[in-house]
């Protein structure tokens, strides 16, 4: 609820426009005002509450956004590259725990009540807030005035459309913030990364206390001789609810590839479940790109390992999944594409009403494009037409099963490639020192 009201009764039914009304206490003049609440469904996201408070006595107004759902099992970070003026219109939901950044300027928006807006408005607000006190800064602190003036000019150039491309991000430990995707997003234009919260982040959200143990005793594997295909149980803290949970681990050998560790987490308290795959070994000199030509339904049963650092692409399907989006997966081709489809569909909040499916503000053109995309993906999972998928892994930790006993599989093309500077930075390889580190430590 909006922080303006401390009392009031929510009407059992909304008015004819779907708005709920609460008589609320004005935090400015301490008289009674009115909070109006409108539930709205965001395309590819979920339901939120738009709250607007007005006081007829003093004229004070306040607008906020609240999530209508619960804290998500994982935090999420969205990264988006703006390349033309149309990108400014992408919808943004920022909860009060969401952190919005203009990455090119290393500029971060302070925490504030939730917002439902677009990227143009977010950047404009940063510019306006910085410019507001500039006249006073010019007199009191000329150095700060000059430094901020340069940033304001860069923000102005971004809004004028003369500084493309530039990148923004939105990171929310609650998982309740969002930047709108589009079926036309390609390469590294749009990415979403879901991550496990730390104990400190769970404390920040009120899911745990400082007194809770982040790692219960007895959870280590020190001194244990790990045997292939043996399941080991570890005691850990659930990343979703911070209660004790069980992590099952098994080391297995993938023929013609390497040893991997399969990890599955199960929480009996909140029902949280997840699985992941970790690979080991030295870092190769080059990345690896594996392309599989899918021709028959039998190809959908091939084993496939997509590591956490691997991107999944298909020009035939208009599909691109950035590294980190699905985590590590050891499954089949059918299972991997089904997970991609289900995650995308899960982002579209569907209340079961065909007229509202996809969100209150989704245009018919956008809905048509997404319907076409999902129809193509559904047909691809059934192998109703030939197409190709590509695994691009800068760490060469991904794998596709051959369908021949000896020699090369004609449906699989493998090539090595030089890692880009961006991939080197993302993987931390530019900062990694493999020679002479003993001398550095001695210093």
Descriptive overview:
This is Zinc finger ZPR1-type domain-containing protein. One of its GO terms (cellular component) is nucleus. With 443 residues, the protein is α+β, with helices and mostly antiparallel strands. Strands 8-7-10-5-12 form a five-stranded antiparallel beta sheet, with no helix packed on it. 20% of the residues lie in helices and 31% in strands. The protein folds into four domains: 1-69, ZPR1, zinc finger domain (N-terminal domain of TfIIb); 75-195, Sandwich (Jelly Rolls), CATH 2.60.120.1040; 214-281, ZPR1, zinc finger domain (N-terminal domain of TfIIb), CATH 2.20.25; 287-426, ZPR1, A/B domain (Jelly Rolls, Sandwich), CATH 2.60.120. The chain is built from eight helices and 24 strands. The model is unreliable at 1-12, 214-218 and 349-360 (pLDDT under 50).
Oligomer: single chain
Termini separation? 56 Å
* Spans where pLDDT lies below 50 across 5 or more residues: 1-12, 214-218, 349-360
Named at the architecture level, the CATH assignment of the largest domain is Sandwich
Strand order of the largest sheet: 8-7-10-5-12
Structural category? alpha+beta
Q: What is the tally of helical segments?
A: 8
CATH class of the largest domain: Mainly Beta
Helix content: 10-25%
Number of E-state strands? 24
Query: What value does the Rg take, in angstroms?
Result: 25 Å
Report the CATH topology name of the largest domain. Jelly Rolls
**Residue-averaged pLDDT:** 82
- Overall geometric form: globular
Q: What is the percentage of strand-forming residues?
A: 25-35%
Q: For the record, what is the CATH homologous superfamily label of the largest domain?
A: ZPR1, A/B domain
Number of domain units:
4
User: What can be said about the biggest beta sheet?
Assistant: 5 strands, antiparallel
Domain Zinc finger ZPR1-type: 24-181, 236-402
Pfam families: jr-ZPR1 (PF22794), Zn_ribbon_ZPR1 (PF03367)
Family: Belongs to the ZPR1 family.
GO molecular function, one term: zinc ion binding
């Amino acid at each position: 609820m909006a922080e303006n009201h401390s009392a009031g009764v929510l009407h059992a039914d909304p008015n004819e426009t779907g708005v709920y009304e609460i008589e609320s206490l004005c935090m400015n003049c301490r008289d009674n005002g009115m909070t109006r609440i409108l539930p709205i469904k965001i395309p590819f996201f979920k339901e939120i509450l738009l709250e607007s408070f007005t006081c007829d006595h003093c004229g004070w107004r306040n607008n906020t956004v609240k999530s209508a759902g619960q804290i998500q099992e994982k935090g999420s970070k969205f990264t988006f590259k703006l390349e033309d003026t149309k990108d400014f219109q992408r919808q943004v939901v920022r909860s009060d725990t969401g952190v919005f950044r203009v990455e090119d300027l290393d500029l971060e928006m302070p925490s504030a009540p939730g917002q439902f807006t677009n990227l143009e408005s977010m950047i404009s607000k940063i510019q306006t807030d910085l410019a507001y006190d500039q006249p006073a800064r010019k007199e009191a602190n000329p150095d700060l005035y000059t430094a901020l003036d340069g940033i304001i000019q860069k923000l102005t150039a971004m809004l004028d459309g003369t500084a493309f491309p530039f990148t923004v991000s939105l990171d929310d430990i609650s998982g309740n913030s969002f930047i709108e995707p589009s079926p036309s997003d390609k390469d590294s234009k749009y990415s979403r990364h879901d991550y496990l919260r730390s104990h400190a982040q769970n404390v920040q959200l009120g899911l745990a206390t400082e007194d809770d143990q982040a790692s219960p005793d007895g959870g280590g594997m020190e001194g244990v001789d790990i045997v292939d295909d043996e399941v080991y149980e570890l005691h850990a803290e659930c990343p979703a609810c911070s209660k004790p949970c069980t992590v099952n681990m098994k080391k297995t050998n993938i023929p013609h590839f390497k040893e991997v560790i399969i990890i599955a987490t199960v929480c009996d308290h909140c029902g949280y479940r997840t699985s992941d795959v970790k690979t080991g070994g030295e870092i190769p000199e080059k990345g690896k790109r594996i392309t599989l030509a899918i021709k028959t339904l039998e190809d959908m049963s091939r084993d496939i390992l997509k590591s956490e650092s691997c991107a999944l692409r298909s020009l035939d399907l208009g599909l691109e999944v950035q590294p980190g989006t699905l985590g590590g997966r050891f499954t089949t081709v059918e299972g991997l594409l089904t997970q991609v489809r289900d995650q995308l569909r899960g982002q579209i909040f569907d209340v079961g009403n065909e007229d509202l499916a996809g969100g209150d503000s989704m245009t018919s053109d956008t809905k048509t494009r997404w319907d076409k995309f999902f129809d193509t993906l559904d047909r691809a999972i059934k192998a109703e037409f030939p197409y190709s998928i590509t695994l691009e892994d800068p760490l060469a930790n991904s794998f596709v099963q051959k369908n021949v006993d000896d020699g090369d599989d004609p449906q699989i093309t493998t090539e090595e490639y030089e890692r880009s500077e961006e991939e080197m930075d993302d993987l931390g390889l530019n900062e990694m020192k493999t020679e002479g580190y003993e001398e550095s430590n001695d210093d």
